[in-house]
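Hey team,

Filing this mostly as a record. A colleague (T.K.) asked me to run one chain through the structure pipeline before their review meeting, and I want the input and output archived in the tracker in case anyone asks later how it was produced. No errors, nothing strange. Just documentation.

Input sequence:
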Amino acid sequence: MIPELGHFALILALVLSLVQGIVPLVGASRNSMALMAVGRPAAQGQFFFILFSYVCLTWAFVTSDFSVQLAASNSHSATPLMYKITGVWGNHEGSLLLWAMSLSLWTVAVTVFSRHLPEAFMARVLGVLGWVSVGFISFTLVTSNPFDRLLPAVAEGRDLNPLLQDPGMIIHPPLLYMGYVGFSVAFAFAIAALLSGRLDAAWARWSRPWTTVAWVFLTAGIAVGSGWAYYELGWGGWWFWDPVENASFMPWLLGTALIHSLAVTEKRGAFRSWTVLLAIAAFSMSLLGTFLVRSGVITSVHAFATDPKRGLYILALLVLVIGFSLMLYAMRANKLMGGGSFALVSRETSLLGNNVLLTVASASVLLGTLYPLFLDALNLGKISVGPPYFEAVFVPLMTPVVVLMMFGPFLRWKDDDFVAAARKVAPAFVASILIGIGAAMAVDHLTWRTALGLFLAAWVVLASIQLLYGRLKERAGASVGSRLRSITASWWGMWLAHLGIGVFIIGVTMVGSLDQHLDVKMQEGQRAELAGYTFTFRGAIDADGPNYDAARGIIDVTRNGRAIATLTPEKRLYWAQGMPMTEASIDIGPFRDVYVSLGEQLETGAWIVSLYYKPFISWIWLGCTLMGLGGLFAAADRRYRRLAERDAKVGAGRSVAGAA
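Output structure:
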């Protein structure tokens, strides 16, 4: 009975999403306050019914109701409660329901936190979000019903994929989906601006905090996902250029460009056409990621579905969204022209250059992801496009991005003198070159990649210090604390996010240049040496879990006779699916990780043990954390709310005057 209630609630949510998509837009076109007011309660009611539906599906998993096909396929009576709950989204149908719930949550947030917006503009935003909800809820009901019954019910379920029975999978999909779906809000604001013809700085100011929060969620989701891959897959990699990883990376790149483009549109009135296109492109890339995961065109640890019909539905939705958006964009092209003018040497030019480079980088990732699929579809053979392609294309594109990223803040808006600006940054730039080369020599790895990476990292850090020093000098008579407090939250956000990129580059460069790996056969009592560490194998013991059998290795790690850690990697065999899994054990340090995974046991009783030394790898996630914190600081800037409320009052006055 409970699954049927969940199914019925999802149908009611679809009805309300249709109401939300139609009535407010009609009201905005007729300037009817009564019709426009329908959008908020419709959005909130839709969220209630989707949440109720999700709770019903979760109940089927928690109670091991194996008459529900999804629970029978993705749960087991012995599965720990935590993984029964996360198993709800560890599959195609459940993850789509999570997607729809995330979208409705974003929509409710817009209704609550954007009450100050002009009613007509708000109605258009909610209308667009309503139609996006229609697309995903109908997709769920028509092709991917999570409440399908399995009659007769099976006695036991097949269990959740063991790869997903991990704490990282508790937060990775929700964060990623909140990021993906969050760009639908930026998309809705852009389409609402096109529909209303109001393409001034106000709509960019209204959209900017929402876009930034979505970017923070996506950053966090990608970072947690890469951390999961690092410790769960058992061979120490953190990014594999997997097609689905790429599908999350492309909207991140475009979202980064969109945030900066919105800043220029808000402050200078320029880049309006760029901003609208980037909003459309970022959401379109999110839809493309959904298509790749759910169409069956790729094989990946991230992919859920293999039914081509589902892929065709998402592909049709993608074509519809892009087609309608670009048609509307073309119709409003005359209103997108103009804006603030700027000289060749200006902050606007540096931001435009970075936007172009980020867009090209996203396009290069898209090409490398889809090209093998096109060849396969046309029966022209199968090829694999892997890290060599992406690294060869990506490094030349991102190097000028990082250089411009730190040079731009030293330039004035509209016009500046290049020689004067270059003099400001020349000491930091030259010092960065020397540090890059010197540090590469110091670690005994003087290659162009290592020197380039360390130069870029030093450039970001030194330029960031110089920027902060310059801001503090602006109020020379005040105390340091007063000067720090006077700096706006959005500036701190920019500073932290850029500094995070520098820290991230250090981590990527050092682990890419200096990591070491050794596979050895080890009997009890045997030792192995790697990167100055001694690993002593003390044998393996049984360490069975709630739904698996496991052998746990015990490995002592010492350095120069001093005990460092005792690592306990495991080799597990999950009962339901008979699937073996490797659980790595890691000694995490600020400047290095020592990483051990346990392989197969040989007939002689020896074990295959993989040893890894990963210098500075934690800095990758430290950099991502700083980026995310920077985004939160920027989104929390109170100036946006005050200015948005002022713009809304002005907009409301114009609407009243127009109606009169």
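Quick notes for T.K.: Residues 167-338+350-400 form one domain. Residues 655-660 have pLDDT under 50 and may be disordered.
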